[in-house]
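Look over this entry.
=====
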Amino acid sequence: MPDIIAEHYERNAHAFDSARRGQFTEKPWLDRFLLGVPKGSRILDLGCGGGEPIDRYLIDRGHTLTGVDVSETMAGLARTRFARHHWLKADMRAVAVDGPFQGVLAWDSLFHLTHPDQAAMIARAAAWLAPGGMFLFNTGPAHGEVTSCQFGEPLYHASLDPAEYREHFAAFKLMEIAFAPDDHMTGGRSVWLARKAD
């Protein structure tokens, strides 16, 4: 499934980037995330796209970004826009990056992975985080798999049950700060904010 996702975003990279630059519904959540991230921190963005608008917002607030995306075109757009930061064309499940990071985010990306891969990525995110680091991501509201449509093509999404995410948090010393199921401010996404124990 991730290979299909990669092909979809590479094929539609410019259309996605254009549409994405006109939306910033996640800003309130980024502001909550940043409350726990000191200025000048290192932040890892899993599924960074072309760096707009999330990474620009974080960079403008004094943070250093490392972005990972499965689309070379997307990562290339981010490199062009923010050349002083680090952008990798890679699969988040296998990418090698040097932590620690004071923040990790996976906005509209983690939910393209299968259930086992999502569980594994929570463990990876926790390992990358510095003590006290913040983790922001979004999912669906309940355990399941769905296929949506983007640019006239099918697009896979999956989610664990909230109780399953919480079990993984407990296993990897992550503390839930906030959970908003079907958050209407972000178009119905279910949003998680967690903090790694000190």
